[in-house]
Amino acid sequence: MPTVYVETYGCQMNGHLAAHGYARTATPEAADVILLNTCAIREHAEARVLGRLGELARHKRRRPDVRLGVTGCMAQHLREKLAERVPWVDLLVGPDGYRRLPELLRGGDGDPHMALRLDPSETYADLPVARAGGVRAWITVMRGCDRFCTFCIVPYVRGRERSLPGPVLLSQVRALAAAGVREVVFLGQTVNAYHDGAWDFAELLRRTAEVPGILRIRFTSPHPSDMSARVIEAMGECPAVAPQLHLPVQSGADRVLGRMGREYTAAEYEDLVARLRARVPGLALSTDVIVGFPGEDEDDFAATEALVRRLRYDSAFLFKYSPREGTRAWKWGDTVPEAEKARRLQRLVALQEAISAEINRRLVGAEVEVLVEGPARRTAGWMAGKSPQMKTVVFPGPAAPGDVVRVRIEAATSHTLTGRRVAA
Fold first, then answer.
1. Phi/psi of residue 48, nearest 5 degrees
2. What is the DSSP letter of 339?
3. pTM for the predicted model, two decimal places
4. Residue 14 has pLDDT above 60, yes or no
């Protein structure tokens, strides 16, 4: 049986190769096929992948029959650069080309084999999904994106939106529940735009919330403009849908939001948050913010800072703008000096850390329901898990992964709650 070594930078691959007789191996030294599965979305990933391909070239020098390939979004986005910079690569396979991997691997004629065409009908709904064990599982419910935000490369490397059939996803959730999974996370670039022609995202939430054994359902990342009243009602009415939402805002300045192509104003976003919080009691809210977008001035940043103060997110992913070749914003250049971007980011991080700490400290003395994930990383004998609001909770064991326990919170930081187990 031939062996394959897969190193992932970003999105996970499906299990298609296993169905064609390839066994996974843990090291490239033992592999007949070495694949770097890549994502073009993550900052600095390009340099890491190019560097890693240089390191992996030694395996081809020692064993010329080894097949070395790059799969995923970066193969799609950087096809010319990869062909020029790493000519020893045998395969370039885009995110819609995984189905052809076994066929391409049989080529072996010395020429690079490519499957880089975006396929608007490809969802991989019929292919096996490779998963690691655990109490939580991630399920891709849709691929691609139709939004074309000016800072984002996704629509160009993953194609337009297409959703997997709802009954297929429901079957996946049932199988996961039977295998002991207790929480599922639905994935999509604009996940709440899901629609398979019959089910919208609200229907998907309602159907999967009824699956016995699934205690929590989460999803990421929704687009504010696709957060319909039906989805909000499903969140409020289905106990299994967790009271936690990651809702990217990106900026608090209307002028910047317009240049980003986000299709909402700050006021519309705040109104949406108010409706969500009114319908989903105890909702924990997180977000994404980009500082230093081209043309962002001090007033724009002040508007973002003010929005973060008003909305009081539980947590946030905060980034400095980084130009991405191929996006619409690329041609505008990087107009905000790096030092100024760093200053703005530091201010926003400090603000958000203080808000997160204040929100978490209010939970001291409260009891929270924790889905146990496994041993805590820092203290022997302690366990860690997540609250319904996706907050990390650590407490003295014993407990087993998959258990649901009640923990009284005794201390809190901006990132972690600490407590002791109490009788249910």
1. -65, -45
2. H
3. 0.81
4. no
